[in-house]
């Protein structure tokens, strides 16, 4: 079992950047899949980015080229660097470990 705590969300203007962090309660070295999902009001939760193994990454088409997922096993942390943010990126962002354990989410609001 693992507990996940997300942070780094907030209010940002369009075109701005944020970096989300997901800290795990134990080592993530043995956790093969780590992912970021998001859920906007009235919409289903969707995959944003996933990292498999140490550096194999995939992204949804809507964020490709703007977001970057990475992991630091020494810090038990997964990051989501979000650049060129758009209003449609507004959502609660969730961390997922091994496609099973969820964090509580962090709110990202992109608005002028």
What can you see in these coordinates?
- A hairpin with a 3-residue loop joins β5 (46-52) and β6 (56-59).
- The chain has no helices and eleven strands.
- By secondary structure, the protein is mostly beta strands.
- The strands form two sheets. Strands 2, 4, 5, 6, 9, 10 and 11 form a seven-stranded mixed sheet that branches. It has a four-stranded antiparallel sheet with strand order 1-3-8-7, with no helix packed on it.
Helix content class: under 10%
H-E order: EEEEEEEEEEE
Terminal Cα separation, in Å? 40 Å
- Spatial extent as radius of gyration: 13 Å
Which regions have little confidence, pLDDT < 50, spanning 5+ residues? Answer: none
What share of the residues does DSSP label as strand, in percent?
A: over 45%
Total beta strands: 11
Number of helices: 0
Shape: globular
Task: Quickly give the structural class.
Answer: mainly beta
Largest sheet: 7 strands, mixed
Q: Whole-number average pLDDT?
A: 95
């Amino acid at each position: 079992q693992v507990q996940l705590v997300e942070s780094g969300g907030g209010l940002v203007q369009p075109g701005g950047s944020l970096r989300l962090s997901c800290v795990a309660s134990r080592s993530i070295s043995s956790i093969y899949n780590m992912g970021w999902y998001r859920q906007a009001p009235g919409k289903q939760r969707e995959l944003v980015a996933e990292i498999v193994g140490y550096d194999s990454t995939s992204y949804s088409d809507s964020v490709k080229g703007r977001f970057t997922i990475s992991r630091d096993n020494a810090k038990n942390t997964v990051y989501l660097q979000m650049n060129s943010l758009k209003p449609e990126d507004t959502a609660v962002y969730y961390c997922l470990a091994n496609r099973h354990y969820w964090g509580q989410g962090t709110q990202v609001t992109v608005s002028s």
